[in-house]
């Protein structure tokens, strides 16, 4: 076994932030990524050319390819981030979510199980499999309470249902086979290098172009936001200090209504890139809500903070400013990842009874 960490989805949004941090800290990374529309090597920055970064362009549904990667690279841990993750896309095309999130996770768990069983005793004891999930598996909250480790699963979209399925598989492989699995659930991530179909980058990009800013329903849906680097710090804490079989929840303690997030983005754009046509908030337009749109998510991460000595470092206001500044300064990256496959169009309304 080597000191390398195998990261699935390492060219995606959260994955690339994780890879950049690991390489900066001198850690060898095996980056397993199929490089779909949401995976881009440009997101890795200088880490992509580092001798510590080893790209394996592999589909996690390909059992033979996974077998080769595990035996050739011999990682000490897996952090599993590869997933289809956009709710609207899952409504239009759920099959891809079942294939990647459920079937892909199954094959990854199976190969990790076989690899783990073959390790010498000391290496076997040290090996970890961190399965990264979302708070959306718990369904929706009312105005009160927050999700914690004991919250019941109640997914409402093909995306959250398939992530729930992958969580159950991961826990089953811990109980049935002794694979040292740690499960994490996080609130909404934001920050640099997020594909521009998600709320915050979509609003930044669209407002900067002077286009209408579509807000689903009345805009009162509430999300808890966590800056991506804070989430990455939590994942590494879970890897190093977490207990197999346990679940850790990462939240930013930053609940905001969607409409308030968009107004905050508009205010930052008014400051950083004023429009001659007036305040950017004039572009806000309410549109038909998406099916199964959960009202509120919020995470109680108090147990995780105590167990892992972790807490988010950035306030939402500072993180959002950094995010807006990054997108304004990196339009070439945005154009490259959007390139012909996504131009800000509405998703999630393509399938009807």
Structure description:
By secondary structure, the chain is of the alpha/beta class. It has twelve helices and twelve strands. It has helices at 13-24, 63-73, 87-92, 94-118, 121-126, 158-177, 199-208, 228-241, 258-272, 302-308, 316-329, 331-338; strands at residues 5-8, 29-32, 53-56, 77-80, 128-134, 181-186, 188-190, 213-216, 222-227, 247-250, 255-257, 284-287. The strands form three sheets. The protein has a seven-stranded parallel sheet, sandwiched between helices. Strand 5, helix 6 (158-177) and strand 6 form a beta-alpha-beta unit. Helix 1 (13-24) packs across helix 8, helix 4 runs parallel beside helix 6 (158-177) and helix 9 (258-272) crosses helix 11 (316-329). The longest helix is centred in the N-terminal third of the chain and has 25 residues, at 94-118. It is globular and about 65 Å long. The mean pLDDT is 93.
Q: In brief, what are we looking at here?
A:
This protein has 353 residues and is an alpha/beta fold. It has helices spanning 13-24, 63-73, 87-92, 94-118, 121-126, 158-177, 199-208, 228-241, 258-272, 302-308, 316-329, 331-338; strands spanning 5-8, 29-32, 53-56, 77-80, 128-134, 181-186, 188-190, 213-216, 222-227, 247-250, 255-257, 284-287.
Give the tags.
single chain, 353 residues, alpha/beta, 7-stranded parallel sheet, 3-stranded mixed sheet, 12 helices, 12 strands, globular
């Amino acid at each position: 076994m080597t000191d390398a960490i195998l990261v699935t989805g390492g060219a995606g949004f959260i994955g690339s932030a994780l890879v950049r941090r690991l390489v900066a800290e001198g850690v060898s990374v095996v980056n397993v990524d199929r490089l779909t529309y949401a995976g881009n090597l440009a997101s890795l920055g200088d880490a992509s050319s580092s001798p510590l970064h080893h790209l394996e362009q592999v589909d996690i549904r390909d059992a033979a390819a996974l077998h080769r990667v595990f035996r050739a690279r011999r990682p000490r841990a897996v952090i599993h981030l590869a997933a289809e993750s956009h709710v609207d896309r899952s409504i239009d095309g759920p099959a891809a979510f079942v294939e990647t999130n459920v079937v892909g996770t199954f094959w990854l768990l199976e190969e990790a199980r076989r690899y783990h069983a073959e390790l010498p005793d000391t290496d076997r004891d040290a090996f970890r499999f961190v399965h990264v999930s979302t708070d959306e598996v718990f369904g929706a909250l009312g105005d009160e309470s927050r999700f914690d480790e004991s919250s019941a699963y109640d997914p409402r979209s093909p995306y959250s249902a398939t992530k729930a399925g992958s969580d159950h598989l991961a826990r089953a492989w811990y109980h049935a086979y002794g694979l040292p699995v740690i499960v994490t659930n996080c609130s909404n991530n934001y920050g640099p290098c997020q594909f521009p179909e998600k709320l915050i980058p979509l609003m930044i990009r669209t407002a900067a172009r002077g286009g209408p800013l579509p807000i689903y329903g009345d805009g009162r849906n509430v999300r808890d936001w966590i800056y991506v680097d804070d989430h990455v710090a939590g994942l590494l804490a879970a890897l190093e200090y977490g207990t197999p079989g346990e679940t850790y929840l990462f939240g930013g303690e930053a609940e905001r209504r969607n409409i308030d997030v968009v107004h905050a983005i508009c205010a930052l754009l008014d400051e950083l890139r004023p429009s001659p046509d007036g305040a950017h908030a004039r572009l806000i337009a309410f549109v038909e809500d998406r099916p199964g749109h959960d009202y509120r998510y919020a995470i109680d991460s108090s147990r995780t903070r105590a167990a892992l000595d972790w807490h988010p470092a950035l306030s939402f206001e500072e993180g959002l400013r950094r995010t807006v500044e990054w997108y304004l300064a990196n339009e070439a990256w945005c154009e490259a990842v959007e390139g012909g496959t996504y131009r800000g169009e509405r998703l999630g309304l393509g399938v009807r009874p």
